[in-house]
Amino acid sequence: MVPPLKSGRFxxxxxxxxxxxxxxxxxxxxxxxxxxxxxVHRSYARKPFVILERIEPIAGPVKVVEELQVVAVGxxxxxxxxxxxxxxxxxxxxxxxxxxx
Amino acid sequence: xxRAASERWLRRGVNVxxxxxxxxxxxxxxxLAIEMAFQVQGRPLxxxxxDLRAAFPRATPRLCVLVHxxxxxxxxxxxxxxxxxxxxxxxxxxxxGYTPLFLRYNTGLAIERNGASLARVMEELLAGYPGTVDxxxxxxxxxxxxxxxxxxxTAAGAGQKWLDRVRRTITLGAPLDGADLARxxxxxxxxxxxxxxxxxxxxxxxxxxxxxxxxxxxxxWRDPSLPAEARHYEIFGALNRSRSHxxxxxxxxxxxxxxxxxxxxxxxxxFPGVGHLELASSRDxxxxxxxxxxx
Lengths: 101, 295
What we know:
The complex is a heterodimer of chains A (101) and B (295). Helices cover 84% and strands 0% of the residues of chain A. By secondary structure, chain A is mainly α.
């Protein structure tokens, strides 16, 4: 249980604003790191497909597998971004609720 | 850890964040972004006449404006290990009757942008200040020196009145010719992109996260249109007692190297053995400032 302040509030307005700022910055940082990791991941993951696509008999199926892989990896990174963003919204909402009380 | 100590560390953390990603915080309207304002007892000062009268009941016609450097705030001016709240500002108030004003600002924003904001804030201050202002002394530490010079340039271009009252500008360890560390970061980031490799490119991206304010430090601010009727002084520190020592020649005061071949100028002083941060709260430096500020 969070102890209330002398004013009767759980958190002061200044504290809430700061925590809100830290939360938003953490979400921005997470998004930036996820984007950078995704860029590096895609660039490495592409390398074996580039080689395999040169072998004519399997070039077609390789292209399909690569596209599936791109969709799967993209979905994972998108999910991380969505979860981070939603977590930020929930934390800010909880902070505002604590300030209101 | 006491509440005051944790508050102090939190404030330092926010200052550092503003220094390194302050432009991002400002662009995202993040509540951690610092708004430029003069500070009185840790609170931003509103520049309307009533608030200014309440904040400065003994307002004098001589103002001394202190502008801190990168990732700092007004507490950088406080002398260490002595009586609390003693600074160049408070000493100039006691000894020469200056009214000290301590600025706090987002050091991650472009220097030109902070300069324009400072020029506007100074004009508002003059409009609401209780009594007349005959003289203004600007003291800027590190990046603050560049912001202060940029403000003078903006004010000259806009014909602002406060610039006519500036009698002295004093920069302390300001990278007027650019900071080597900022140049190193710029070159490193460019070199890391040369191989077109995803990992080195990623490292280049990480270095490029640094704020616009830090990027601007590589350029310095040597030739603005400074007020001709004012005197302009420069103070530089040095890591070693000897100015010819290799450490001093390579690293200056640890972050900023002083200009070469300016030893003879009476408006430039070097303080051997005084590090970059120490320039903002050194008894020796204060004695020099006092000498320059005496009528």
